[in-house]
Amino acid sequence: MKKDKGDDMATHKISDAVIRRLPGYYRYLRELEKIGITRISSQELGARMGLTASQIRQDINCFGTLGQQGYGYNVAELRAHIGSILGLGRKYDMIIVGAGNIGQAVAWYPGFSQRGFEPLAMFDVKPDLIGRVIRGVPVYSVTELKVFLQEHPATIGVVSTPARVAQQIAQQMIEGGVRAIWNFAPLDLKVPDNVVVNNVHLTDSLLVLTYRLHQLERVEEEQAAESAAGPAEGIICLKRQFLSRSRQKPIPFFFQICCKMRSALYFSPVFVV
Q1: Using an 8 Å Cβ cutoff, are 140 and 129 in contact?
Q2: pTM exceeds 0.90 for this model
Q3: Among 68, 93, 142, 248, which has the highest number of CB atoms less than 10 A from its own CB?
């Protein structure tokens, strides 16, 4: 019997880095379909996503041979295959505990329902929220969570509560049959092996952004300093570096300095005769 391409996932572990890139592949391929592009090369897809062609091929080859040399990838087929890997194409009933800003944002976002994620209900402790209907999703008291799950089984649970109650809420979800938890509480949840969890720390993503901003600013400052310094000053700076660091790494650093000074002398108009 012919082995299905998706069966390869059961025989070897896919790295988390590749898994994190899959939604991006799906999103870009979906947009390409919308504008009528039927095939694309790894180089073209990589250019759109900010990845190398080699990285694209390595990632996609994790799930079987999908492209053809000289042709590239069939956009519709690759999008459908990645969607299958991501578990799309089926309906996922969800519950949301914590009807504050994050919980309401999850309920409001139309992209979730378009991909098969359907919020059944929200739960909270605040009297002014209980009894409301938010984007068609009713809000119940958190004390009704256990009974609700008995009557309306859900596959995915969203936790957007304070950290002090998040683990308790997660346990109630698990006891009610929830198999996957999307956690926005500032706490890493502990779950059994037969339950999957994605702990989302919004500040972590923001700190990654500020790190990249800081690195960009440092590069710009260094480039500005190099542009402001004349050729002679640049050579003096290199000499200072040599005197201060050559004792630690004499031979490698010496050659680095020589190469830099040679380039400066060669290209500097100060030394042209």
Answers
A1: no
A2: no
A3: 142
